[in-house]
Amino acid sequence: MSVVIKEVKCAHALTRGSFNGELSINPYIGCSHACVYCYARFMKRFTTHEGDWGSFIDIKTNIADVLADEVKKLRSKDKVIYLGTATDPYQPIEKFYKLTRKILEILGGIENKVRIMTKSHLVLRDLDIIKANPNIGVNVTVNNLNEKWTMLTEPKASSLNKRLDAIKRLSDNGVDVCVMMGPWWPYVSDAEKLIPLVKHLGARSLFTESVNTKRDNFNGVERILQKFYPKLAPKMKNILFEEDSFNKFYESEEKKIREIAAQNSLPIDFKFKRD
Ligand code: SF4
Predict the structure, then answer these.
(1) Average pLDDT of 100-113?
(2) What's the gap in Å between 32 CA and the centre of ligand 1?
(3) For the structural domain made of 4-271, what CATH number should be given?
(4) Residue among 199, 185, 186, 168 at smallest CA distance from 262
(5) Which of 39, 52, 119, when mutated, tests ligand 1's pocket best, judged by the most ligand atoms within 8 Å of its CB?
(6) Domain ranges of the chain
(7) Which atom of ligand 1 is nearest to the CA of 86?
(8) Alpha-helix runs per DSSP H in the chain
(9) Do 198 and 170 meet the contact criterion of CB atoms below 8 Å apart?
(10) Among 9-13, 140-144, 170-174, 212-216, where is mean pLDDT lowest?
(11) What is the pTM of this model?
(12) Would the CA dihedral through 42, 47, 51, 56 be positive or negative?
């Protein structure tokens, strides 16, 4: 899929009330990682693009300058700033624009805690800034250990091995890494394998959430299920779309995940909720 790139100017860098009700920064609109379940695809309506999610990126070329002004006036020092709630700040175009790096240079100088959200190995490019600023932590998404499922559902993000390597190298350098184990896929995500592995690699905490099937978020997953996993399709859909099955599955998974996280001394937050 070719990607249409457009440079735009932004009026604001920090926005409120998105992930966890905290502050967020998104240097790009759109994301070429093109995850089939991406919840941020609704952002397309704020652009002029007509292509599918993953086929366009708007580059907020002035975002670092805008942010530098905003942080001077920032009063809420206790709010966490999430970098990449509706785009991956380390998608491939970041190699050229370096907006995320410029943003980190500014955020390293303020008191607020900062969490970078990514599925990309490119985060290691900025290890020098990240490890020098204890207020900056990194949330890396790994929601399963099945290469084929990951390649089909997160086609342009870094491979599983590269993400696991990023977790290790960040952790080895003293960076606070949270593993985002979401969405938690029925029949695919496996707590018994995943949690001890990321603990071994140095992760300090976990987060997980159920699959969001709102609006058109599930259409791409449905296509993959029908094409590559026709037997799994009805079983997964039964859990995700039938209220009783959903509740039973996620209650049971939560209990198991809590136990395994506790055995591995990893704090965990859950967002298992039917949309
Ligand atoms: S990396 Fe994140 S923002 Fe980008 S497509 Fe995937 S889920 Fe969406």
Answers:
(1) 96
(2) 8
(3) 3.80.30.30
(4) 199
(5) 119
(6) 4-271
(7) 3
(8) 63-73, 94-97, 99-107, 127-132, 147-153, 160-172, 191-201, 219-228, 232-241, 243-263
(9) no
(10) 212-216
(11) 0.96
(12) negative
